[in-house]
Design a protein that fits this description.
two-stranded antiparallel sheet, elongated, 53% helix, Muramoyl-pentapeptide Carboxypeptidase, domain 1, mainly alpha
């Protein structure tokens, strides 16, 4: 995990005294220095700007931590960079620590879906249709971690876009279509790397900027899933498919989306569940089509 994060935090040119000091490189070093507890309080502002204090902090790190003659410079893959990464590693692990991934051990049964549908007052196939469209029925990765989709535009908004320039993979102004160039969503495992990098900048904002599990509930809506805290929400998402289903039921009822599900009003449900931009991906149309397919299959099976 730390090796993946290192790939995001590496520098391509030197930072410090008499160095090129490209903004992205300086920003990455600022992140590592802040995680290593250097130069504070207050902690570094991650802005990519080289200032005399930053050189002083690098010099102090080389003298007091590395016990070497300081040159006030950090070069890519240098001993100073490796030592700084090592010093930052405990905080990296703390910021990116999540519950154990074991939720894939159990799968939802028809009885689970029936109980949820009874609670909501809708058809079983309506819930299954949402599940299939949201996560394609695969709520966990092979590693046992819940499937997520990290939304850089949400993280950007929650952090006032202060990281857009330095970390465009995890923070930006606007949503881009899936698979759009180097700044698109990427693979399912890529989502976790992006989440972890964002967590180094702002853990709560990172968690709240991802959609989670079988029903892809956005983290910023954690308080509507029956969870009492953000960590409680994570436990819901990591524990089992059943706990994810329970969270979905709680969310639907708290947001008064049970009515649209009962009426099969997919447009109203889509607007409430995915926001005003639901039409961009034909979200309501996809759920409607999936519902018809599932309902038809259930009719045939009942004959």
């Amino acid at each position: 995990m730390i090796s993946d994060i290192t790939r995001y935090l590496q520098t391509w040119s030197a930072v410090g005294k008499d160095a090129p000091n490209l903004e992205t490189d300086v920003g990455h070093i600022q992140v590592l220095l802040r995680l290593a507890g250097c130069g504070g309080p207050p902690p570094f502002v991650i802005d990519g700007k080289m200032v005399p204090k930053l050189i002083d902090v690098i010099v102090t790190f080389q003298k007091e931590v590395m016990k070497i003659a300081p040159d006030g410079k950090i070069e890519p893959a240098s001993a100073t960079f490796r030592a700084l990464l090592e010093a930052a590693s405990p905080k990296i692990r703390e910021q990116t620590r999540f519950p154990s991934g074991n939720g894939h051990r159990g799968h939802l049964t028809n009885a689970d879906y029936t109980a949820a549908a009874t609670t909501i007052g809708c058809k079983v196939e309506a819930i299954k249709a949402v599940s299939e469209v949201e996560s394609k029925g695969a709520p966990f990765l092979p590693s046992g971690k819940p499937k997520i989709l990290f939304e850089p535009q949400i993280f950007g908004a929650k952090t006032h876009h202060r990281y857009d320039l330095l970390f465009p993979d995890v923070s930006r102004q606007h949503r881009l279509p899936r698979g759009h160039g180097v700044h698109g969503y990427g693979s399912m495992e890529d989502q976790w790397t992006k989440l972890e990098v964002a967590a180094l900048l702002d853990r709560q904002a990172a968690i709240e900027s991802a959609s989670w599990g079988r029903f892809q509930i956005l983290g910023k809506n954690w308080m509507f899933t029956g969870a009492r805290s953000l960590d409680g929400f994570l436990n819901v998402m990591f524990t089992s498919e059943r706990s994810q289903l329970d969270g979905f039921v709680a969310f639907v009822k708290s947001q008064k989306l049970d009515g649209p599900l009962k009426r099969l009003d997919w447009r109203a449900f889509a607007r409430g569940y995915n926001g005003s931009g639901f039409h961009r991906d034909n979200y309501d149309g996809k759920i409607s089509e999936k519902f018809r397919s599932l309902a038809h299959a259930a009719t045939l099976a009942a004959r």
